[in-house]
Structures are given as structure tokens and as C-alpha cells.
Design a protein that fits this description.
This protein is mainly beta and 188 residues long. The chain is built from two helices and ten strands; from the N terminus they run H-E-E-E-E-E-E-H-E-E-E-E. It starts with a helix and ends in a 6-residue tail after the last strand.
Length: 188
């Protein structure tokens, strides 16, 4: 019994010593980048993502959405990589004085380069979910369909571009999102 306990403690010490956590601070002292490496995989979080990583241009005249009262960034680049799966999500939020119709028309055209564009009217964000339709890669509209929010989607469940647009007064709030997943056999 003592041998098993000692072996368990030794194994945990070895595993924990093989982990590394690196946090880089921003100009205001807030955590900006976090890198975690373990024997099982890596996690990288970068607040303040580069919009170019979404593969989409910024709508003319749009402004990066400011941090909220809690200092929460409105953009992030998250990468999770293990031997079994990987996930990359890049999201950047903007605001514009233009109505949703103009932003929808602009991004309908921009998204065409990635394939057929699906337009969804939903009440919730983050409609990405792992393929659960018996391996289907086809994108679908999900959630309540009676809403003013619009999601434009293109690609497949494992490689998609999303533009989520919400009316805000006479203007709009919108997010540019890129999601890429892979299983054991693929790479990001």
C-alpha cells in the first residue's frame, strides 16, 4: 500500500514538473498571453487577437469593440492541441454605425471565397458544436429562428468562418470568428 502511494506521489511530481505555465502581461499589467504545456498537450490563449487570423477583412468604418467594465477583452485567439484532438478559435468583436443589412451584404460577398454561405437568424451565439450528426460536416442553423440576430456561416463543422451580427440602436455589433478542429488523424 505504501509503495503504491509513494509511486503515485512520485508520478504526480514528475508530471507536474513536466508542466510549464508562461503568462505574459499587457501594458496595463493584465494577463495578455497564457501558454500552458503539459505532457498531454498545450493550451495557448492570446487576448487581443489579430483579425487577419479570422481570414476576414474588417468592415469599413467599424471600430474594435471596447473592453467592458470588467476589463474583458473583446477578442481572443485560443489554441488547444493534444495528441487526440485540436481546437483553434479566433474571435474579434466590432461595432459599426451602419445597420445590420449593410454588414450582412458586405460579409455575404466576403465569405463566398470559402464556399456557400448559410444565413441563420438565431437567438444565441456560439452555435458551434462538435459534429454530432453521425460524423456530418455540414453546417446548420441552430437555436431559435425568430430573432434579429444574424449568423453567416461558411465551411464545415471542423473548419468554419462565422460572422455574427446584432442590431444596436441604428447601428450594429458584430463578431468575426474562425473555428478549426481536428481529430487524432488531422492537424490544424
Amino acid at each position: 500500500m505504501r509503495a503504491r502511494l509513494a509511486l503515485g506521489v512520485a508520478l504526480n511530481v514528475l508530471l507536474l514538473s513536466a508542466c510549464s505555465v508562461n503568462v505574459k502581461k499587457g501594458n496595463d499589467g493584465e494577463d495578455k498571453n497564457v501558454d500552458i504545456k503539459t505532457p498531454f498537450g498545450e493550451i495557448h490563449v492570446d487576448k487581443g487577437a489579430d483579425v487577419r487570423d479570422t481570414g476576414l477583412p474588417v468592415y469599413h468604418g467599424a471600430r474594435l469593440k471596447p473592453k467592458n467594465d470588467d476589463g474583458e477583452e473583446k477578442s481572443a485567439n485560443v489554441n488547444i492541441s493534444t495528441s487526440a484532438f485540436g481546437l483553434k478559435v479566433v474571435a474579434v468583436q466590432y461595432e459599426s454605425d451602419d445597420p445590420p443589412e449593410k454588414i450582412v451584404a458586405f460579409y455575404q460577398n466576403e465569405l463566398k471565397r470559402y464556399g456557400s454561405v448559410l444565413e441563420c437568424h438565431t437567438s444565441h451565439r456560439g452555435s458551434w458544436s462538435p459534429a454530432h450528426d453521425h460524423g456530418s460536416e455540414e453546417l446548420k442553423c441552430e437555436g431559435d429562428k425568430d430573432n434579429n440576430s444574424i449568423e453567416l456561416k461558411v465551411g464545415t463543422r471542423s473548419n468554419q468562418h462565422i460572422v455574427a451580427i446584432d442590431p444596436r440602436g441604428k447601428g450594429s455589433d458584430f463578431a468575426l470568428v474562425y473555428v478549426r478542429t481536428h481529430g487524432k488523424e488531422d492537424t490544424i
